[in-house]
Amino acid sequence: MPDLYDVAAIGNAIVDVIAPATDAWLAENDLTKGAMMLVDPARSALLYSRMQQAVEASGGSAANTIAGLASFGGKGAFMGKVADDELGRTFARDMRQIGARFENAPLVGGPATAVSMINVTPDAQRTMCTFLGASVEFTDTDVEVDTVEGSKIVYLEGYLFDAEAARRAFAKAAALAHGAGRKIALTLSDSFVVERHRGGLLGFIETQVDLLFANESEILALFETDSFDEACEALRTRCDLAAVTRSDKGSVILSQGQRLTVKAEPVEKVVDTTGAGDQYAAGFMFGLSRGRPLQQCGQLASLAAAEVISHYGPRPQVSLKDLAASRGY
Q1: Is residue 23 one of the residues assigned to a domain?
Q2: Beta strands 183-187 and 151-157: pairing type?
Q3: In this structure, what CATH number is given to the domain that contains residue 75?
Q4: How many angstroms separate the CA atoms of 55 and 118, rounded?
Q5: What is the pTM of this model?
Q6: Per-10-residue mean pLDDT for the chain, 329 residues long?
């Protein structure tokens, strides 16, 4: 099959609600700073009512990555589940406006479209409370065969590992992708996801994943160690290619005996770290899909991450294609 897309992503289709918050506010509402917590509809409504004035925008980790890919000039597709409601229609419209394919049928008669409330403290750390709603209704029947088989890279969002039906969808996507000679990429998403599903994730990584994205805390949790170097060595034996981010320390790329270090792009002021990992993955996969050397893939990734943490919101506010050109990437 010809190449239809650079990257096709499967993930939670979520509308983000982003607002500033204080450490005291987090404590008052019994929230763990820097974590992603799942909440039920009642808790979601209560927290929403207590948040400061917020910005609402289509989000979801993998969808944000596709938005970053599109900003680089890449061609992307997204698969995820929204409800047949206003937020669901907004999400679909936003994805199509950036030039991405999004054609999954909306859920009728079930839970509402997912919402993630993101409270950002002055140190730019984000604390997320997510009502998954319709997003967890994604199943293997929602996996688009032609889209998967026509994509250079199929990118899977670790947050979906919480849902058994979505894990079946991952297995189907991996089988289709590898059958068509395509690559499977996975992001671990959050150390709490890793702790809940360590065994399942390790098995999936070892047997299905060609490219893994993680941050330092996630791979430490995955291999139950305090040593970053030990975790990298353990990861190297289980995955052909991995990119591990380390905040202001940059990132490390592990590939076939190689260990490359990529510096973090300088940022005048870190405003909001929401979406940093999502955009890092966007830059890396854009470069990889276009045949760029791994070092340059890492540089594109760092550039995208630096852009998104310089403002509120998880998606680029400038053309990443133009920004990359200005840096000679």
Answers
A1: no
A2: parallel
A3: 3.40.1190.20
A4: 10
A5: 0.90
A6: 93 91 96 90 90 85 97 98 92 94 96 91 90 94 98 96 91 98 96 93 97 97 96 93 96 93 94 92 98 97 97 91 94
